[in-house]
Structures are given as structure tokens and as C-alpha cells.
């Protein structure tokens, strides 16, 4: 083992998959940001998620104003677009138009779904912990595209590198908890 600078410790446990967070601001403008710092807090019929973002992101203001968003799950075929979306600001750029992405109407929130994504989760902000730049989100509607041929997602390492999903190991029979079909 070699010592790793503590400032780089997050590289060892960086979460995934990379998400796009869509918002529609109070001004009616759609926006999209790339997010890698998030986590599942609860699952089942009342899914809950945490998302880390703050005033450095244009989307933060829309999250605070509207208290809703969509978590969209892009796949590996969108890797370059994932990075490019994250490298510009929605304050100056209509990212849907610039990157040829298709906004679709959501059912429970005004923020748009992203048609090109494997899945989308409509969410409402239930808490904002400003001290930590943390948003707690409740999922209110989920969507997936079962016909999408590319299903591999990206996982950020944190320094410009990404890991791509590979082989799936099905160990459900070995686990004590019953996992619902299709998960």
C-alpha cells in the first residue's frame, strides 16, 4: 500500500452512475447539468435520493425556486455529451438545443425528462441542507426505456476518468432478501 493524499480519497469511492439533473427554472427555461455526487437514501415505494450541488451551479437556483427536478440516467454512448454538458453553464447555453437532446414532458414535475436516457426519475426537493449544499429528493415517478439497446452506464472516478458497467453478476438467489423482478 502507498499513501494517497487525503484530498484524493474520494476517488476511491466515487459514486455512480453519472446522472443528468434537469430543471425548469421559475423563468420557464429548461436546464441540464451533469452530476456525480449523489446517493440512494431509501428505495421501494418511497424512493429517496441525495444530491450534492450548490450555488456554483446554475441549476441550484432552479432547485431552490421550484423544488423539483428529474434525475436522468445517460448511457455510455452519450459519454462525450455527458462531459460536454458538464463543461458549460446553462446560464449562457440552452444545453438541450446545443447537444441535440430531446426534452419530454414529465408527469409529476415541470422539469423535463431526457428522451435519450435509459431512465428518468421525477423528484421533489423535500429538504435543502445549505450548510452541506445537499438536496434531499423524493422520487415521485420513474420511467425507463426497455427497448434501448445501450444499457451500460458511466461511473465517474472523479478525475476525468470513467468506469463503464460491464458484466452483470446475478446473485439474487444467494441473497437473503427478496429482490423484485426486473431490478
UniProtKB/TrEMBL annotation:
Domain Flavin reductase like: 11-164
UniProt KW keywords: Flavoprotein
MF (Gene Ontology): FMN binding; oxidoreductase activity, acting on the CH-NH group of donors, NAD or NADP as acceptor
Cofactor: FMN
UniProt KW Metal-binding keyword: no
KW Cell cycle (keyword) present: no
Family per similarity comment: Belongs to the flavoredoxin family.
Stated name of the protein: Flavin reductase
